[in-house]
Specification:
The protein is an alpha/beta fold. It has twelve helices and 18 strands. The chain is globular, with a radius of gyration of 21 Å.
Length: 430
């Protein structure tokens, strides 16, 4: 397996190997005029482009590599409509008047993903059988069942699960219990990303890969963006949607998030009765640990497991050994496993574990920071940001906050390493 890749090449992964061919997204040439310029062709940018274009807005999307090159094409494919914070915690933090619209937007985020897939005929192997969050320790079950009850009070189909329930659904007796969120599901994320590109293009948006924006400045009432090739765009509004791959385009922005690596492995397609007993209902799953593990099957029966890795990008198979050990400990009945794919991508982690929306200058919106739940949340964010750009005074469910760089952000490599070590210790003894 080769890990190294040039910056312009889609990194190798299960998704890159199995997605439908990418639609043409030629590099921007010459000068372009747009109502809205979007920087970043991931879930946020493409969802915003689609909804803006459907409303008749002239949209130009610029991506440094190709759509889905970042986390949108490399994640685990789980569509989870939740935040790190439980609903009642959000109410305590923001008050009911502000929190309940946010909770509703988050709750409906998976609906939006699957509606877009159906409406636009996106070939991305969607399965909507729910998400299992499970715990190793009995002492964590009460909190998980309280979480399920909070969502149930808001009309969500949830189930509280004991040890036997979880064992039957997962095919392992390693867990003490958990809960099922019926809103959730799984998709082929790179295929979904490419489907959003096609849908946005069909609605009239222009999408350009290989078009890194190197300069952005406001002149009078308009924004001027220049790309590395010398092409340019003039626009009334700009949306920056670069998430875990945010660079220095806007001063201070990259210092507001930690770009943490998430590593994933995928087995060869599993066969036999033991394989069929693992996640037989088609759910996705993750643990409740601070350093969580997430796992699911794909459409061909491969078993995927993901989790945090070290700060540096992986250099070879040895960097994924912790995930392979975890998978084999959970499912010893499978015997020795063959791994077909190993890959990684960066997610944007915020200090408060909330998605961040900023408007640091007139006509400029920034949206990023999904903390590992980007398929549902970023798709939803794109639609809500589009609505806000179309009607600036309309209700907007997410908090809009000033840029707040993380102190000593240059030490993020050490922040992440220390956090991984500390959370690993807490997980071991709690």
């Amino acid at each position: 397996m080769s890990i190294a890749t040039s910056p312009s090449t889609l990194p190798p992964s299960l998704w890159a190997a199995t997605a439908p061919a990418a639609p043409p997204t030629p590099a921007l040439a010459g000068s372009r005029r747009a109502d809205v310029l979007i920087v970043g062709a991931g879930f946020t940018g493409l969802s915003a482009a689609l909804h803006l274009a459907e409303a008749g807005t002239k949209v130009c999307v610029l991506e440094a590599h190709e759509p889905g090159w970042g986390a949108s094409g490399r994640n685990g494919g789980q569509v989870n409509p939740t935040l790190k914070q439980d609903p009642d915690e959000l109410v305590r933090t923001y008050g009911a008047a502000r929190a309940e619209p946010l909770i509703d937007a988050v709750s409906r985020s998976a609906d939006l993903v699957f509606e877009l897939i159906e409406r636009h005929g996106i070939d991305c192997q969607p399965v909507r059988k729910g998400w299992l969050q499970v715990a190793y320790s009995p002492q964590h079950i009460a909190a998980m069942h309280a979480r399920a009850e909070q969502w149930a009070r808001r009309g969500v189909a949830t189930q509280m699960l004991d040890r036997a329930d979880v064992a039957a659904r997962l095919g392992t007796e390693a867990f003490a219990g958990g809960w099922l969120d019926g809103r959730a599901g799984g998709i082929q994320p790179l295929a979904y990303t490419r489907g959003l590109v096609r849908a946005a293009q069909a609605a009239g948006a222009s999408v350009h890969g290989g078009s890194a924006v190197t300069a952005l400045e406001r002149r009078g009432t308009q924004w001027h963006a220049a790309t590395a090739s010398g092409a340019s765009v003039v626009a009334d509004q700009v949306l920056i949607a670069t998430n875990g791959y945010t660079g220095g385009l806007w001063p201070g922005l990259s210092r507001t998030v930690l770009a943490a690596n998430s590593f994933i492995v995928a087995t060869a397609p599993l066969q036999g009765a033991a394989a069929h007993a693992i996640l037989p209902g088609g759910e996705t799953a993750s643990t409740s640990q601070r350093l969580l593990l997430y796992f699911r099957k794909d459409a061909q029966g491969r078993l995927l497991m993901g989790g945090r890795g070290h700060f540096a990008d992986p250099a070879g198979p040895a960097d994924f050994a912790h995930l392979e050990r975890s998978l084999e400990l959970l499912f010893p009945q499978l015997g020795p496993l063959e791994y077909e794919y190993r890959w990684a991508g960066r997610i944007a982690v915020t200090r408060d574990f909330m998605p961040h929306v900023h408007t640091p200058a007139p006509g400029l919106t920034i949206a990023l920071g999904y903390n590992g739940r980007g398929i549902a949340l970023a798709t939803s964010m794109g639609r809500h940001v589009a609505a806000r750009l179309l009607q600036p005074g309309a209700d907007f469910p997410y908090p809009v906050t000033p840029l707040q760089p993380i102190p000593l952000h240059g030490l993020q490599r050490f922040y992440i390493a220390a956090g991984v070590a500390w959370y690993s210790l807490l997980d071991r003894f709690s």
